[in-house]
């Protein structure tokens, strides 16, 4: 039998919780973005959680536990999938507004991972625009949320940090070793925001020698 020319990346998990202490009644949208060499073989590329209220205890967390289930295939790791999360709620006038954007790469090692994603919102470029947006209920938003997964133009975008969303991933890979990529299984009970990349990169040096492994 001919050797496989593609590898599979199977991703399960949940959008578990969120932290937005100043707000209530929040739901999330999510979508995956990936490179041109990647295809979805099964599962959902995007979805919408239920609306939930924050807990009454001192933690004040939102709990969704919304399932994720998707399988990709590709011939090379360039354009490794990223998960984009958008949180929405109602303002004082009952208008639906964005409460945060966030993004993370799907973990690059098999196993269970939990990632806390820092969320942010775009800011108006002037105080006048900010006041006008507040009066009209039209806060700054990205036309295409996938822009948060790209570095292009981000240096001129004014944003403000606002909350966190925690996602758990269960990652399974198939046939990567046949194509010259070798990854070490990794289990993490918790990964906090920017440390995700540092903790996930438990990759065998042979992988770097055999192939160029870049993520954008």
UniProtKB/TrEMBL annotation:
Entry superkingdom: Eukaryota
Chief site of localization: cytoplasm
GO biological process, one term: cilium assembly
Record's GO cellular component terms: MKS complex
InterPro entries, A to Z: C2_B9-type_dom (IPR010796)
Annotated keywords: Cell projection, Cilium biogenesis/degradation, Cytoplasm, Cytoskeleton
PROSITE patterns listed in its UniProt record: C2_B9 (PS51381)
Protein localization: Cytoplasm, Cytoskeleton, Cilium basal body
Keyword Cytoplasm in annotation: yes
Family: Belongs to the B9D family.
Record protein name field: B9 domain-containing protein 1
Species, as recorded: Pinctada imbricata
Biological classification of the source: Eukaryota, Metazoa, Spiralia, Lophotrochozoa, Mollusca
């Amino acid at each position: 039998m001919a050797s496989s020319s593609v590898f599979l990346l199977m991703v399960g998990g949940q959008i578990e919780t969120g932290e937005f202490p100043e707000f209530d009644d929040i739901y999330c949208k999510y979508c995956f973005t990936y490179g041109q060499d990647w295809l979805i073989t099964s599962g959902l590329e995007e979805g919408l959680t239920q609306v939930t209220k924050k807990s009454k205890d001192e933690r004040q967390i939102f709990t969704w536990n919304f399932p994720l289930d998707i399988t990709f295939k590709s011939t090379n790791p360039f354009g490794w999938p990223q998960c984009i999360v958008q949180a929405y709620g109602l303002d004082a006038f009952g208008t639906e507004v964005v409460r945060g954007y966030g993004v993370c790469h799907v973990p690059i090692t098999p196993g269970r991972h939990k990632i806390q994603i820092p969320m942010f919102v775009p800011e108006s470029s002037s105080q006048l625009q900010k006041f006008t947006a507040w009066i009209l209920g039209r806060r700054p938003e990205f036309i295409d949320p996938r822009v948060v997964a790209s570095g292009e133009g981000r240096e001129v975008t004014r944003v403000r940090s606002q909350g966190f969303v925690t996602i758990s991933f269960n990652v399974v890979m198939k046939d990567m070793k046949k194509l010259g990529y070798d990854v070490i299984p990794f289990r993490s009970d918790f990964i906090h925001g920017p440390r995700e990349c540092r903790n996930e990169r438990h990759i065998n040096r042979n992988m770097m020698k055999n192939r160029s492994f870049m993520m954008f």
